[in-house]
From TrEMBL:
<comment type="similarity">
    <text>Belongs to the EPSP synthase family.</text>
</comment>
<feature type="domain" description="Enolpyruvate transferase">
    <location>
        <begin position="63"/>
        <end position="396"/>
    </location>
</feature>
<dbReference type="Pfam" id="PF00275">
    <property type="entry name" value="EPSP_synthase"/>
</dbReference>
<protein>
    <recommendedName>
        <fullName>3-phosphoshikimate 1-carboxyvinyltransferase</fullName>
        <ecNumber>2.5.1.19</ecNumber>
    </recommendedName>
</protein>
<keyword id="KW-0808">Transferase</keyword>
<dbReference type="InterPro" id="IPR006264">
    <property type="entry name" value="EPSP_synthase"/>
</dbReference>
<keyword id="KW-0057">Aromatic amino acid biosynthesis</keyword>
<dbReference type="InterPro" id="IPR001986">
    <property type="entry name" value="Enolpyruvate_Tfrase_dom"/>
</dbReference>
<comment type="pathway">
    <text>Metabolic intermediate biosynthesis; chorismate biosynthesis; chorismate from D-erythrose 4-phosphate and phosphoenolpyruvate: step 6/7.</text>
</comment>
<dbReference type="InterPro" id="IPR036968">
    <property type="entry name" value="Enolpyruvate_Tfrase_sf"/>
</dbReference>
<keyword id="KW-0028">Amino-acid biosynthesis</keyword>
<dbReference type="InterPro" id="IPR023193">
    <property type="entry name" value="EPSP_synthase_CS"/>
</dbReference>
<dbReference type="InterPro" id="IPR013792">
    <property type="entry name" value="RNA3'P_cycl/enolpyr_Trfase_a/b"/>
</dbReference>
Amino acid sequence: MDRKLQKSELISGKKIEISGSKSETNRLLLLQAIYPELVIKNASDSDDSEVMKKALQKQSGEIDIHHAGTAMRFLTAFFASQKGKEVVLTGSARMKQRPIHILVKALRDLGAEISYLENEGCPPLYIKGGELKVSEVCMSADVSSQYISALLLIASSLSKGLKINLIGEVASAPYIKMTLALLSEIGVSSDFEGNTISVRPLENLHKKEITVESDWSSASYWYSFVALSEIGTSLKLSSYKKNSLQGDSILSEIYAFFGVETVFLNDEIELRKIQSVENVIFKYDLRNAPDIAQTIAVTCFGLGIACELTGLHTLKIKETDRLEALKSELAKLGASIEVSDKALFLKSGGTINENVSIETYNDHRMAMAFTPLMLKTNIIVSDSEVVSKSYPDFWKDVESVVIQKKEH
């Protein structure tokens, strides 16, 4: 369904409730499958988490995870380590193009029985679960942190635990630290020193309840809305912690550059637009938070400022090639933009074209990242319901905090 967004303004002082972090929820769901004593509160209501939950209940047969990349990585490790389970993991056409060979090789080195059913190195996968008796493995660390987290999540269930020797510079390190912090919360001990991670086994878990923090990636779109609003505009979001496990919590620091102040109030945050932005170039290395790159690029375009975003090599293998998608859609709006394999360069200035239809490429973040431009122009978001992958209530929330601008 295409959604026409009329030029609007943000209603100051509103509050939005955002569901639990998809990243935290999916990790905890896998841990809950291993340790049923774990109770999860404020779980994400995203499509990805629903897919994960249903898949973990299956013992055998085909499991279609659609576009859910996190689920594909985590479930590959989970089913490989589950004796007696035999599954085929498959997904969308795009999922069948997304590489998984680094994780599969590591699992095979640990003793897993996994084979490719179509293209070598990509899903669908045939997995026959068994006991993984090897307790040490080497793995490339510079492609996706999810491969590493997938191994860490099953590590404590292995008889001798697991030692992972990482090769190369670690991509998205905060997500690995998130995984280790969640393991620590349920009583798993680990060490992360240099390029080596060691996780010790945990046989039993006493009943443990964990409340999931709201999703910082979802907060990024509201940061963009406030950044593109008039000085004095504010918006509240719940439930967020100052000492967050999520890498995307760096938003509070990044958006200060765009004139947005973040105030932590108990379990919520208030975003306040306190100043305008000088016409200078915004430069940032996003290797630890690549999921907010689209939002930041669109914010810079909406503000008419230049940006240079680096550390984006993982965007090529997401739901779409996000760098090429950004280049194409921003150019339609009037942007002067260039991309490389791991960077994006946006020039300042230029007018914003009206009534442009934004293609979303089956990518939830494309739909949501471009939506704040409705504060600047009329736009059309194609296949708008793709947002349900991570934020099902997004459009309802948008409607609750914007009002159509009256042109004078």
